[in-house]
Structure formats: C-alpha cells, structure tokens
Amino acid sequence: MDKTALMSLMALPVAANIAGCAEVRPPEENSGNNTVPPAVTPEPSAMPNILFVIADDLSYPHTSAYGNTMVSTPGFDRVARDGALFNNHYVTSPGSSPSRASILTGLYPWQIEEAGTHASSFPARYTCFPEVLQKAGYLIGYTGKGWSPGKWDVSGRPFNPAGPVYNDKKLTPPYSGISKIDYAGNFKAFLEEREEGQPFYFWLGGNEPHRTYQSDSWSFEGLSPDNAEVPGFLPETDDVRKDLLNYAVEIEWFDNQLVKCLDELESRGELDNTIVIVTADNGMPFPHAKCNCYDAGIHVPLAICWGDRIEPQVIEKLTSSVDFFPTFMDAAGLESDIRFSGQSLLPLLTEDNAGYTADAVYAGRERHSSSRYDNLGYPIRSIRQDNWLLIWNMHPERWPAGDPQSMKEDGTLNAMHKAYFDIDGSPSKTFLVNNYTDPDVRPYFDAAVAKRGEYELYNLSSDPECMDNLAEDSGYRSILESLIQKLETRLVETGDTRMGANPDIWETYPRLDGSMRYFPEPVTEEEGDHIRAGWTVSTNTELFEENGNNYTEGLVDGVAGSFLGLVKPGKKQNGVTNNDSYIEFIIDMKEPKTVDYFRIRHKRTGNVQLRWRKFSKIEGSNDGISFFNIADDVEVTGYDSSDAIMTGNIRIPETVCRYLKFYGTSDCWDTSNGNSVQISELFIGKSE
Questions:
Q1: How many degrees, rounded to 5, is the angle at CA 86 between CA 104 and CA 365?
Q2: DSSP SS3 for 394
Q3: How confident is the model at residue 138, as a pLDDT?
Q4: What is the distance between the alpha carbons of residues 266 and 360, in angstroms, rounded to a whole number?
Q5: In this structure, are strands 628-635 and 650-665 parallel, antiparallel, or unpaired?
Q6: DSSP letter for each residue of 25-62
Q7: What residues does each domain of the chain span?
C-alpha cells in the first residue's frame, strides 16, 4: 500500500478492525474512548476471581510444560495441566513498560501515547482493567512489579495502573538479583482484607527473571553447563550456558511463588472460582531477544485455568496480550462501550473457537533505554501471520541495539562497542562484544547489534531463531508484500501516529525513569543517500590500527571514532607494511542500486585530514567478480577545509551496480604528513 493511499485511509472514519477485533480510534480521537464505566454490573457472587501472574523477561518456551528441560516449573505446569496451554501467545511490545500498559488498557502501544514508550508517563484518560473491576465491586491489588518503569503519579492517577500495592511482606532471597518481596505472603495479606463473597483481582508481578543475576547461582543449584539449552541466536560457549542457567534459576524461584499462591487459593476453597493467568511481559534479557520483535522478544508463555470452566487443552491459535482486558470483561459478565484492540479468549477456551476470529498478532516498540544520540528510539512494527514474521524497521539508519559508542559529558569518547545499551548487561553480551572479530562469533554479534534493513521476513517453522532474513529473496516477494500491506492497514486502522502527519511525536515523550547517557552526534545523511544498513566492506590489504580503533564496518555504518586505516603502497604504518603497488576497497551494497555520487567523512584529529587526493579508478560489479569501469582519475575535493571533515558530493557517471570498487596507486595520496589515510565514513547516493 503506497503512502498516498495510507494517508487517505487515515482521513476516513475508522471502521471495524480486521481479524474480528472491536473498533478503535486514532489517538487524537481516543480521549475517553476506553474510559466508559461498565453499563451492566452483575451481582458480585456471579463474578470470578482473577489472579494475573506475570513474569519479567521470560521467553517461550522456557517452562517445563513446553518440554524445556533447562527449567522445572511445577506451578506453571499445574495451571497448564488443569486448563489451557497456549503455544503461540504474543505480547505487543518487547519491553516491559509499554507491554504492561498494553495489557492493562487492551490497546496497542502505539494507541496510548506516552504509555506506549519506555519509562515515561501513563495518561489517566486511558482506563485500565483494574479500575473497571474495582467499580464492579472487586477488591484489587498487586505485589512485586506492576506497571513499570515509568511515573504513573505525574498523570494524576491515584495508584499504579496495576492496582494498589501490597509489598510490605519481605523475605530473604537465596541469591542476589532475586527480589526481597514476598509475593505469596503479600497475596495472602491481600486476601485477608477481602470481605466475604467479594470477588478479587490480584496482579502478581515478579521481578524475575529480570537481570541482574548472581553469577554462580547455577552451581549452588547443582546444575551443569550441559543442562543449558542454548537458542540458535547465541553461541554455545560456557559463558552463555552459565548465563542461561542463572536465568533458569530465577524462573524456578518465581514459579515457586506461584505454587504457594495456588496452594493458598486451594486451601481457601477459591481455586475453582478463580481465573489464573500465568504469562510474561516480554522475552528473555539476552541479545537478539528482549527489546527486539524477533520471536524470542515477543513470544511468551501463557497458561490459563478456571476450575471446570476450562477443559484441559492446548491452544495453537495466535493470541495477543491485548486480549486479556476483553477476556476479563467477558468472564465477569461486564458490558461497556470500551473499544478494545483485542477480543475475548473465552471462545477459544470454552467453545468451538468460532468466536475468536483474529488471524494475526501485532507488536512494536519505540524508545527503550537511553541508548542513542538525543535519546532517540528505534521504532519497529511487526506482524506474525501463520508461520511468517514480518518486521518493519522504520528508521534502519539507526542502530537497533543502541549506538555502539557512548561518551562522557565532556565529549570524551568511551571504548568502542561497549555501549549497545538496549541490551541488558550480561556475560552473554560481554562475550559477543569481546569476541566479535572471531569469525565463529561474528554472526551472533551482527544478529544482535548490526544495522538492519527496512524489512525483515522470517519463516518461523524453519527458523524460529530469526537468523535467516528472507526479505531480499525474490522467491518470497509476494509473501513480503502481502504482510506489509496487512501490517500497514492494521496500523492505520488503529491510529498509529507513525503512519500519520506527526510520526516523530514519539521522540518528544519524556524519559522519566532511568539514567540518561551521552552519545556523539551522528552525521546527517542527505536526501539522495542510500540507506547503508547491512552494507559490508572488504580490502585487498591488511589494515592498521590506532589505539585499537580500526573497524571496517565504520566506513558504512558511521561508528564514531572508527576509520578504514589504509597504508600507502610500499610504505609502513603502525607495524603494517603494504607491499602491493596499489590499494583498493570494495563496498557491497547487498543489492543493485543507482549511484552517481559519493562523499567522504574523514578522520580528523589534530592536523590529520583526508590525504586521498584522487582514485585511479572506480569500478562497478553485480556479481563481485566481473568489474566494469565507471570512471578514471576521480578527483577528491573538499578535503582541506580547516573546519569541515566532510567532502562535498563527488560526482561520477550514473551507473547501476551492487559492488563499488575504489582503486588507488601510490600517486593518489598526499602523504607529506604520513604514510596512511583514514576514511571514517563513505556515503553513496543518487541525485534527485
């Protein structure tokens, strides 16, 4: 669907959602659209209790009910055995704050303004299901982590969107990193306040298995690194295996609290009249999982039981976390004009499935942590339909896991590749960063942090780890285009501002919780520049390092402080000798592109400016083997300004190619001040 058609759709009245979901409105029309109190309230005795149990950073399939042998989760397994186990449940965001806000409102993150990004506020005009249940006569409360991180009080709310807090009961945890909050003890204290016959809703929000972990907890539990089940997006090393086992220890601790809560309900005779939902807010806190819309970031466990109202079963249908609010309304017999983006799960659980009509699930993210220059986010939208997962990276020129290099307040650069703050600090992350030059590690490193194309397409039946992007494969073009259209249509129907006149409003929402960091300012790209995400660079000679700072990917990815360090033929620089009679570097743009200019940002420290005065040849190729001539003796101008570190656009004859080879001999350089040239960044484009 082209942008003109999308803008026309935005101007039309919003119709009923696709996939059988209820009608929703764009945010500018949303004020009050889910603030209508229930029109009909049944007698309290007819309404079920609700225990909503949500882990923090837990991916599918990391419970033993799914056959995972790394963990033992008898609590989750009991709920799954007595009720329904969901194999394809998805959250709407890979980060906790927007995901939890979406659960609470029944709306997608892009429909709830500040609440749809991380660590901001939660506008009071968006009604949450605990408020509705309280008005219907429920006793409500939560323990552990409710809606967080963020500042709900600045919006004028009387309590956390998850409910009034019950965190007074404490315990001594077995390992550091595990919360001191006694979840089961606080649930029991909550129940003591309940009036006889009063229905209750309680949110049990574990802080586990969120990082940090005690590094040796696995050993105290008698586990072996051989016990770890390593997902395909991580290398199978001892560092990673031990990290996964520490993750497993926290999952089991959280599940033990669930066991105690189920026992408490059973001892009070309340279990059969309680809907118990056990799930998670987003995926595991590892590279390529949390904060990403890959399967490991948004596919989470789900089990639901409700006495004999739900027969034991396994649900294969795709379901979404926006379905919980309408499910609670349906189960309690409450009616209202609230406009949800999801629909009740009860038809799946108690009928013949015909009443649940969704055939796809949607997710997205904006800013997570303070991870980029000027606190910019990394907007993503995604759709899963059947076994296909489409990811739309709306700003592919940005770094998906955060900028690779941060800096101090005085502008001093910190070490390269020590940032990527959208990935939680961990032994797994450290291993990738410290070993990224190892050819066996590099694919995992790139999967976690490298720039990505605008679209990614994965076949989850054969590639659940999302490591084989099929978006550029012409054999999947029809699937790609169909999913793009379906995703865009859904985003327009649900009022995503990224599809409207003010797409960057997300960058104005304040970050109110968590540290703020500093990053070097990126070079502004021009309108005709091609997006360089995923481009690679190769050379015919050894490169030299300066203070350990030499990264070929910086040439096309804009890594601050990096450079392509080339030594003049026949000369020596920093221990590297170039015995060739020429030098060349080749840019692989990954697909044929029309080009007619390039420009260079050069490394300039002190008086070191660009020393390359011309290229003997510039050649093109579409197979990387057979090259054809584009231009000879191309002059490099604009290199000698005392203020600028960027040349102007240097014109070359228009051509279409995938590979560009820049070739030079010893007479191409001004080496009066040295034997090397450092090129920090190369831009390639087509004039408008």
A1: 45
A2: coil
A3: 98
A4: 36
A5: unpaired
A6: --GGG-TTTT-PPPSB---GGGSPEEEEEEESS--TT-
A7: 47-351, 536-685
Residue 541, classed as helix, strand or coil, is coil
pLDDT at 558 (0 to 100): 78
Question: Residue 45, Cβ neighbours under 10 Å: how many?
Answer: 10
Q: What letter would DSSP give residue 177?
A: T
The CA distance from 424 to 499, in Å, is: 30
* Overall average pLDDT of the 547-561 stretch: 73
Mean per-residue pLDDT, 362-387: 97
Q: Tokens in use for 559?
A: 């890594």
What pairing do the DSSP bridges indicate for beta strands 49-55 and 84-86?
unpaired
Length of the chain equals 688
- Cβ(359)–Cβ(486) under 8 Å? no
Report angle CA 545, 549, 555 to the nearest 5 degrees. Answer: 95
Question: What pLDDT, on the 0 to 100 scale, is given for residue 413?
Answer: 86
Which residue blocks in 475-522 are alpha helix, DSSP H?
Answer: 477-493
356-365 tens-digit pLDDT = 999 999 999 9
The CATH H-level superfamily of 47-351 is Alkaline Phosphatase, subunit A (3.40.720.10)
Query: What value, to the nearest 5°, has the Cα angle with vertex 624 and ends 623 and 630?
Result: 95
H or E element at residue 133: helix 129-135
CB 560 within 8 A of CB 612: no
The arrangement of strands across the sheet holding 455-459 comes to 360-365, 380-385, 388-393, 455-459
Residue 299: name the closest of 99, 83, 97 by CA: 99
Distances (CA, A) of 645 to 427, 522, 524, 610, 678: 38, 13, 13, 8, 12
Higher pLDDT residue, 516 or 14? Answer: 516
Q: Is 312 exposed, middle or buried (0-12, 13-18, 19+ CB in 10 A)?
A: exposed
DSSP string, 326-383: HHHHHHHT-B-----SS--SHHHHHS-STT----EEEEEE---SS-SGGG----EEEE
Angstrom distance (rounded) from CA 396 to CA 456: 11
* CB of 107 closer than 8 Å to CB of 340: yes
pLDDT over 60 at 23, yes or no? no
C-alpha closest to that of 149 among 476, 368, 342: 368
In the chain, what is the greatest distance between 2 CA atoms, to the nearest angstrom?
A: 92
Asked whether residue 27 carries a pLDDT value surpassing 50, the answer given is: no
Token readout for 215 is 């590094």
Q: CATH fold of 536-685, please?
A: Jelly Rolls (2.60.120)
Cα end-to-end distance, the chain, whole Å? 23
Model-level pTM? 0.89
